[in-house]
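In this supplementary section we document a worked example of the pipeline. Step one takes a protein sequence of length 287 as its only input; no multiple sequence alignment statistics are reported here. Step two produces a three-dimensional model, which step three serialises into C-alpha cells for compact storage. The input and output of this example are shown verbatim.
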Amino acid sequence: LARDADAIRGRMNRALYDATRARETIDQTTSVLFTLRAELETELEELPSDWTVAAELRPAEGVVAGDCYDLIRVSPSELGVVIVDISGHGAVSGILALRCKELLRAGLRNGLEPGPAVQWAADQLDDLGDETFLSAFVALVEFDTGYLRYANAGHPPPLLVRRSSVTELQPTGPIVGPFFGPWITADADVSIGSALTVYTDGLVEVRSDRQEEFGTGRLARLVQRHAGDHAEMIVKRCLEEIDAFAASRLRDDATIVLLCRNPNGGRSAPIQPARSSRRLRLRSRPE
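The serialised model returned by step three reads:
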C-alpha cells in the first residue's frame, strides 16, 4: 500500500509539473502572438493639419493576421504607405508579413522609389517557396502637393476617391513570389477633398446571407458619401456597414488604411494618433 501510495503521489506530482509547464507555454505563446499582432499594426503618426489617417486590421482567425500595414514618416514632408497581404493567415503568415513590412520600410527609408523598393524586398524574399506569395501596395505621398508615387504588386486596386469620381490604382507589376517583376512606379494626385483607400481583398469579399459580395463599389460609395470627415470616422462607418452586411465571420484577413486630405483635418473633431480605431466584431450566426 505504501509503495502504491508513493507511485500515485509521484504520478500526481508529475501531472502537476506537466500542467504547470503547459500553462507557462500557453502564457508565453499568448504573449508572443499579441506582440506579433501589435507589430503587424503601426502607431499612426501625427500628420499636418490638413491630413488625417486611420487603419484597421482584422484577423480571420485567432489574433494574428497574414495582413499588415505601415505608415512611415520618410521625411517631414513625405509619408510612406505600405500594405501587405500574405497568402494564408495565422502566425506563420504573420511572421512573413512582418518580415515584408520591415524590408519595405527599410527600402523607402533608404531612398528607394516604391517600384524599386518592391523589387529589392522581393530579392530578399527568395526563399518563399512555390506555394507562398504576397501582394503589396507601396506609396509615397507629398504633404504639400498631394503628389502620390506608388507601386502595386498584384494587390487589389486601391481607390482614390473624390467627390465626383473614383480612380482605381491598378497593378504596376505582378504578385511577389512566383514572379520576378518588374515593378514600375506610377503616379497620381491626392487632391484636396479626396481620400486614398487601401484595403486587402478580405475586406471587400465579405458575403451576405444571399452570398453577395460587399465589393469595391460599396466601399467607394461609402467613402465618397462621407467625404470631408476625419479618416477615423470614415473607417468606423465602413466597418459598421460591413458588420451589418456580413452573414458570418471573416473568411480571410481584412485590412483597411484610409488617408484623407481635407482642409483643417476634416469636419470631425481632431483626435490624438492611436494604434487603430476601435475593434468592431463581425456578427456571426450559429453553424
